[in-house]
């Protein structure tokens, strides 16, 4: 008989990216930040469809009302609202009885009431189309049933009577889109430019980096003002302007990584085998710079959002009726004493996003550090 021995399978090693994922998942702050960002983006994408309000809908009867979990109009506000409408109809209201979904009242006047003027109830944000239940004294006394139009403003309304919750979520779409798109522009330009300069080296590297130094000397605000003067204010211009400046830091980071990678054995072997310069950049140089680049991207997104908020605060950003967190914070700062909720809610969303991105960037930095393997 011959002894048969079974060989154990060789152990499977883990790559740097697998180790980085495991370390990232062990970082509670980074995971919590990732969940918070996912929920924030989901709320900004889906939330405006569920609030029941359009971001540009103006409620003239609900200007600067505070946030509330209960519906508007409040019961104590109904008599005053009826009185204002009755004044426009040139009648006197009486026997006002507010129920859950309607108001019963009697209008009296010295002359017959023009029933066409009852449309003022329908034009109001608080009431629907009235129904005449009794017509007495040759039209000088009308008994009405007026439906109540209930509205919920969880975050309150702004100075124009627009729902602040809807506008905050729409502003999140704009701010996050500008942050991601501008970062994408900076990523594409900076990685390609820095990797090319670092790998080629020599005079080409010197000339390319001197161009970067010249662009660094241009004031950012002056550059944006010039773009606004020549091309006008629009959403696309915002992320192009920001991305066209922020790629400079990305290029320097990638260039530093490429200078060390070009001396590695696998790059020298690829050169000896006759691989083209573009092939070496695509297959070896750029993929091996992604670790620091990913970390920098998570830190660049909040920087871009702050830049957009700053530009919007100065009036150079997105324009009405579209909005961003910077625009809302600017409006809230001007009315902080009378309506503090106009500043608190958009600022809370912005601060939460910035903290989450910074914690995620710290977690990625620790996870992708090869010295921690």
From TrEMBL:
Keyword Flavoprotein: no
PROSITE patterns attached to this UniProt entry: ABC_TM1
Mode of membrane association: Multi-pass membrane protein
Alphabetized UniProt keyword annotations: Cell inner membrane, Cell membrane, Membrane, Peptide transport, Protein transport, Transmembrane, Transmembrane helix, Transport
Protein name: Oligopeptide transport system permease protein OppC
Entry's family note: Belongs to the binding-protein-dependent transport system permease family. OppBC subfamily.
Intracellular or extracellular location(s): Cell inner membrane; Cell membrane
Database matches in InterPro entries: BP-dependent_transpt_permease, MetI-like, MetI-like_sf, OppC_N
Organism whose genome encodes this protein: Bosea lupini
Lineage: Bacteria, Pseudomonadati, Pseudomonadota, Alphaproteobacteria, Hyphomicrobiales
